[in-house]
Write a structure and sequence with these properties.
Chain lengths: ~270, ~250
């Protein structure tokens, strides 16, 4: 080996040691191993409902490019339907959880009043609400309400916890600066809870995403990814079913990734390293 | 007389009867005076300060600030905390502006009025930093500037340098004396360090162990800056230390 070649090799090895590159390589290897295993198992098992990766990939591309013959819509439209429900359910939960969580955290009486009700509803899995919500809110608002319930509790408990963990010394500091009870709330308690709220949103998003798919599977109509998966399974089109599952995985990863980023940005802005 | 504390008593209810934390505390403080309250830990000296600040209420007794009885916290008493108690989401400037913001002072004026206090504590250039980016000593500079920016009648300091390392602590003591001589604020300073009290105070109020009463008051008339190595400094330090130690023994 010439000297130049060896230097080139050293540089290449050094590059491999950079954490970001190193981690990306490991991630790629991990995913490749998963796909390979899936492929081998699918070939060996030779089952209709376990298609191989290339077949699923083909179905995936096709689902975006063309309208589904049984549904009359493309995957884009299914995604849009699901996101719409997700957004509406999330917004509703947000509107209820913020005032409720702040009030419960800040006012002892309100806490005592609301807590028993919250504790009764919290253990009910969101999915258990599907039949009821579909019955009274029908196929559009029903799944939205399921998301609402799923997102509400993680948001609520994070905000509540945030208010409860405000350091008493900060309240003292504000009081010696002449803050009224209302100012303590707006200028100390509320800003203090923002990072907790962001955590609640991130966790809520994960749960909300699971809720939407499940709700659409049980009681969906006119599109949505959950509905799509259920329909394809019913028709025996398992490659399409898997394509739908991959879409959910990717969208889920994207939303949590974006939220993690926003959470970090917020924490930095709020003075938490 | 800027501050008069008359017959202050604080007790906490217990299962049987009550626990007296502070008894018969009487103190008059002159305008511009630097008073240190010195005592063994757990003697209730912080409680006295918190009562003056209005953060806790007394069981009995009266506190007059400029002749008016105080009740509850107010911006006429600025407080500096041992744990700094800065708002982590606010920059240095916005921490210092906090009190004026509460009063509804418009942003332009706020900035103008706080800038001189930021400069006074030597934080110019750090206005846009967040507290986590600052060292302990710098955090407490923010704490002092925040308290002063409200232009209180009196500055209450609760072991403000207790969380700092020895070197920073000495530096901050010098800085505090400089700030004090520039602002001529009345200061009540809580500490359990005899050395610190001797270095800073016009008057040292030595507290007894629980129930806390005033054990003895020392007038320190030495000129500043004081020399910790001087014989009279060492002699008085020894005397007060022995006094404090004898009290701790009684408690045991």
């Amino acid at each position: 080996m010439s000297e130049e070649e060896s230097r080139g090799l050293d540089e290449a090895l050094e590059l491999l040691n950079k954490p970001l590159i190193k981690n990306s390589i490991v991630t790629i290897i991990s995913l490749a191993m998963f796909v390979a295993t899936w492929w081998v198992v699918a070939i060996l098992a030779d089952l209709v409902y376990l298609p191989t990766p290339p077949n699923v990939m083909e179905a995936l591309i096709d689902s975006f490019a063309n309208e589904d013959p049984n549904l009359g819509v493309t995957m884009w439209q299914n995604i849009w339907s699901s996101l719409q429900r997700f957004g509406l359910g999330f917004a509703l939960a947000f509107l209820v959880a913020i005032p409720l969580g702040l009030a419960m955290g800040y006012s002892k009486i309100f806490d005592l009043l609301a807590k028993p009700v919250v504790e009764v509803f919290r253990p009910i899995p969101p999915i258990a609400w599907v039949p009821f919500f579909i019955a009274i809110f029908f196929y559009f608002w029903g799944p939205i309400m399921v998301i609402f319930i799923g997102v509400l509790f993680p948001l609520l408990s994070n905000i509540y916890f945030g208010v409860k963990s405000v350091e008493p010394i900060l309240l003292d500091a504000a009081r010696t600066q002449g803050a009224s009870r209302f100012q303590i709330f707006t200028k100390v308690v509320f800003p203090y809870t923002i990072p907790f709220l962001m955590t609640g949103i991130r966790i809520g998003m994960g749960i909300g995403w699971m809720c939407i798919v499940a709700a659409e599977m049980i009681g969906g109509v006119g599109g949505g990814i959950g509905f799509y998966i259920n329909l394809q399974a019913g028709l025996g089109l398992y490659t399409n079913m898997f394509a739908g599952m991959i879409v959910i995985a990717v969208l889920g990863l994207l939303t949590t990734g974006i939220m993690q980023y926003l959470e970090n940005v917020t924490n930095r802005r709020m003075g938490i390293r | 007389m800027i501050l008069e504390i008359k017959d202050l008593m604080k007790s906490f209810p217990k299962k049987k009867g009550e626990m007296v934390a502070i008894a018969d505390f009487d103190l008059d403080v002159e305008e511009g005076e630097f008073v240190c309250i010195l005592g063994p830990s757990g003697c209730g000296k912080t409680t006295i300060l918190r009562i003056i600040a209005g953060l806790e209420s007394q069981t009995r007794g009266r506190i007059l600030l400029n002749g008016k009885e105080i009740s509850g916290p107010g911006s006429d008493r600025g407080m500096v905390f041992q744990e700094f108690a800065l708002f982590p989401w606010r920059t240095v400037r916005r921490n210092v502006e906090f009190g004026l913001e509460l009063k509804g002072v418009p942003p332009e004026e706020r900035r103008e009025r706080t800038q001189k206090f930021i400069e006074l504590v030597g934080l110019n250039g750090f206005e846009d930093y967040h507290p986590y980016q600052l060292s302990g000593g710098m955090k407490q500079r923010v704490g002092i500037a925040r308290a002063l920016a409200n232009e209180p009648a009196i500055l209450l300091m609760d072991e403000p340098f207790g969380a700092l390392d020895a070197q920073t602590r000495n530096l901050m003591q010098k800085e505090l004396l400089r700030i004090w001589s520039e602002t001529r604020k009345t200061v009540i300073f809580i500490t359990h360090s005899v050395d610190e009290a001797l270095f800073l105070a016009d008057r040292i109020v030595v507290m007894t162990a629980r129930p806390s009463e005033i054990g003895q008051i020392y007038e320190i008339k030495w000129p500043r800056p004081r020399d910790r190595a001087s014989p009279e400094f060492a002699a008085l330090r020894k005397q007060i230390l022995e006094q404090l130690e004898s009290m701790v023994k009684i408690e045991e």
